[in-house]
Amino acid sequence: MKKKKNQNYSCVHAGELKDTVYGGATAPIYTSTTYDYRGPGTNLYPRYFNTPNQVALAQKMAVLENTESAMIFGSGMAAISAVFMAFLKNGDHIIMQRAIYGGTSHFAAAEFDRVGITYTMLEHINEDTLQESLQENTRMVYIETPSNPLLEVTDIEMVSAFAKANSLITAIDNTFASPINQNPADFGIDLIIHSATKYLGGHSDICAGTVSGSQKHMETLWNTAKNYGGSLSDVTVHLLERSIKTLGLRVKQQSKTALKLATFLERHPDLEKVNYPGLKTHPQYKIAKKQMYGFGGMMSFELKEHVDHNDFLEELKVIKPALSLAGVESTILSPAQTSHSLLTPEERAEQGITDRLLRFSVGIEELNILIDDIEQAIEKSRKR
Ligand SMILES: Cc1ncc(COP(=O)(O)O)c(C=O)c1O
């Protein structure tokens, strides 16, 4: 497993906006939507992504993702859609991983056709499948790893090498790993996207997104993004900056607890299957170990037939059934009933998503609390 130094220092201090007037320990919040055009803030405007708090937070994200630059958006989807619309045009083709966030696949299905962009979704991403789907007009490869909800791991270095050899731009949704556990720029990925609504926000009360990359790529992104208007308000920028200060502490704790919990659940007699990249039995364990600093706080599992999964969700006392993920509180959901409910049972089965699959987001509660909650809920949900 790779090691990275001083992550907590970067979370707290990178891109710090200093209070030079009063010497306060935290950054002042500039909420103005209008500034004196004669300077010093020439052309500052929230939708131009260039107000003091936006710029400071973007610098923090650039440092955390080891890139030159970054931009902050009003949601993860605002970031993802801006990337597609800025780097693809009518007549282009994109290769995408199939196992990605449902909203992103929906964007491709609903929007690409209208603007004349074609796409190929790949079930398994490897050199052969990438080569087979390469077309003359292919411009981008888009991946998400670890994936939702099966925690499949894609080899970032391989994708990056393939893309470079074929002059393609690469984009990754790094939400599940967070910058604490994975820095795709180190492997040559061009655009690193986060739904900051998840780990970066971390308290289930902020909707935001980020993109990190080179200065040149951020200029291209900015040219399009300012037209779509998906910036984040400075008050929420402040909240996000405050949250990121504890990102390292939270994610390291969540990853530690998740590894122990996944190891416990894998041996549990009432569970069928546990998907977690940190388990040696995970099919891409070696790749995960190569490219991640920690295995993250997300996992999924199936209860055996003799445990009713709906009753199990009802009986949980601490772990909350909830749609989103990556907060300080542990949450759980049934992908078949939520994110993947629009697929037919056959389509779900094809992707390995059974009705009994549950996606679990490990919070910062102690391991014994989570184990006790799971055990008592299983006990009450056995089919008689
Ligand atoms: C992996 C992943 N990427 C992107 C998104 C979209 O982010 P947002 O809801 O902030 O627009 C989500 C939301 O659930 C997600 O889970």
From TrEMBL:
One of its GO terms (biological process) is methionine biosynthetic process. The chain crosses the membrane at residues 70-88. GO terms for cellular component: cytoplasm. Its cofactor is pyridoxal 5'-phosphate. InterPro entries: Cys/Met-Metab_PyrdxlP-dep_enz (IPR000277), Cys_met_metab_PP (IPR054542), PyrdxlP-dep_Trfase (IPR015424), PyrdxlP-dep_Trfase_major (IPR015421), PyrdxlP-dep_Trfase_small (IPR015422). The keyword NADP does not apply. One of its GO terms (molecular function) is cystathionine gamma-lyase activity. It comes from the Bacteria. The modification N6-(pyridoxal phosphate)lysine is found at K198. Keywords: Lyase, Membrane, Pyridoxal phosphate, Transmembrane, Transmembrane helix. Belongs to the trans-sulfuration enzymes family. This is Cystathionine gamma-lyase. It comes from Nonlabens marinus S1-08. The lineage of its organism: Bacteria, Pseudomonadati, Bacteroidota, Flavobacteriia, Flavobacteriales.
